[in-house]
Design goal:
151 residues, mainly alpha, 70% helix, 3% strand
C-alpha cells in the first residue's frame, strides 16, 4: 500500500476521528420521549455521511498497486491564501457574538469572495449582492423559519 495523496490521506483520518467524536457526543443527547424518531436521528445521519465520505477520500488517497502520484511543489500563493482564509474564519467566529450574525456573516462572505475570486468592479458588486442575499436567506431560514438562536 502506498499513499498517493498524503494531504487527502491525513485529512480523511482527521475527519474519521471527528466523526467518531461527534457520534459519541450525539449519544449524550437526552431523549425527551415525545418524538417518534428521537433527537439523535438527524445528527447521526450527517455524521454517517461525513464518515462515508471520509472513507471514500481515504480509499482514493491510497494505492494498492504501488503507483505513486507525482506531485509538484506546493504553490506558495495558494498556501498563503488558505492561511488568510483560515485567519478570516477565526476572526469571524470571534467577532460574531459582538457584531451579530447578519453583519459578521455578510462581511465574511464578501471578504472570502474577494480573497478567492476576481477583483473587478463588476465582480465586487456581484459579491456584495451575493453576500447580502445569502446572509438574508440563511437568516430567514434558520432565524425566522426554524426559530434557531443566531448571535
Amino acid at each position: 500500500m502506498i499513499i498517493k495523496k498524503a494531504g487527502d490521506f491525513w485529512m480523511s483520518l482527521v475527519l474519521l476521528g471527528l466523526s467518531a467524536v461527534l457520534y459519541h457526543q450525539s449519544l449524550q443527547i437526552d431523549d425527551l420521549g415525545f418524538l417518534e424518531l428521537g433527537p439523535t436521528v438527524f445528527p447521526s445521519f450527517f455524521i454517517g455521511v461525513l464518515a462515508a465520505l471520509s472513507l471514500l477520500l481515504l480509499f482514493g488517497s491510497i494505492s494498492l498497486k504501488g503507483e505513486r502520484e507525482v506531485s509538484g511543489k506546493v504553490d506558495r500563493k495558494v498556501f498563503l491564501m488558505r492561511g488568510v482564509f483560515y485567519g478570516m474564519l477565526i476572526v469571524y467566529l470571534v467577532v460574531m457574538p459582538y457584531v451579530g450574525y447578519i453583519v459578521s456573516t455578510a462581511l465574511f462572505l464578501f471578504c472570502g469572495m474577494v480573497l478567492l475570486g476576481r477583483r473587478t468592479a463588476k465582480d465586487l458588486a456581484l459579491y456584495a449582492v451575493i453576500s447580502a442575499v445569502g446572509t438574508g436567506v440563511l437568516y430567514a431560514l434558520f432565524g425566522v423559519l426554524l426559530k434557531l438562536f443566531l448571535p
